[in-house]
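Batch manifest, entry 17 of 40.
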Amino acid sequence: MPYIISSINVNGVRAATGKTGKGMLEWLAVTEADIICLQETRATDEQTRAALAPALDAGWYLTHAEPGAKGRAGVGILSRREPRAVRIGLGRWQDGTWRPSAEFAGPGRYVEAEFDELTVASVYVHTGEADTPMQDEKYRFLDEIGAHMRAQTSDFVICGDWNVAHTELDIKNWKGNLKNSGFLPQERARIDGMLAAGYVDVVRNLHPGVAGPYSWWSYRGRAYDNDAGWRIDYHLARGEVAGRAKQAVVERAATYAERWSDHAPVTVQYR
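Output type: structure tokens
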């Protein structure tokens, strides 16, 4: 079955939907996506549903993992079909039972929705900070994500804000970020491991050898106008679906003023 899947860090769902003119709700009204992975909703279930009420009234289904700390994280999946199963937080199947992760069963960084022939996950990886406990937690999270991905046996697409630029092509100012979280060798090696386990970086596969396409730009300075960005929002796919990706676009707003997040939707068509 063909799918169009999009991923977007909304940078606060209430702010994104509250912007009038060309905000998130207007984008949702015209997108052709069948499934949308959301990151950084920064809102409770109730607040998220209220913010997305026009879209839900129009027929979208929402799966949401609310943040554990107020105003931080939060991930979700919007879909035009109701998923047959939902799992919130990391964990593993063991003897036919879903066993939640001891550390990452929550809060608000991972959710997956199972459809008839495909499982789609939305992930928000920690920002981290080099040489701090925050960075150590980021490494542990990436390790658990990697283990969960390797355990998959059927078609699986995991989308989200990974807060890691994998290669020099994925960050404009890579030389200035060699010692910063987001471009550390240990982080990039973990993405290497995911690809070595059989996953395809779908956007890079469809845009080989080019800088970007970037999906995040700082609000500071003229980063957006100069396209001085990072490519940190990935679709990683395994199984038959990975070979069906035929087009990938970053839906970059025409102007800085028209942005409704500091990220742009990354949208992939799967045949």
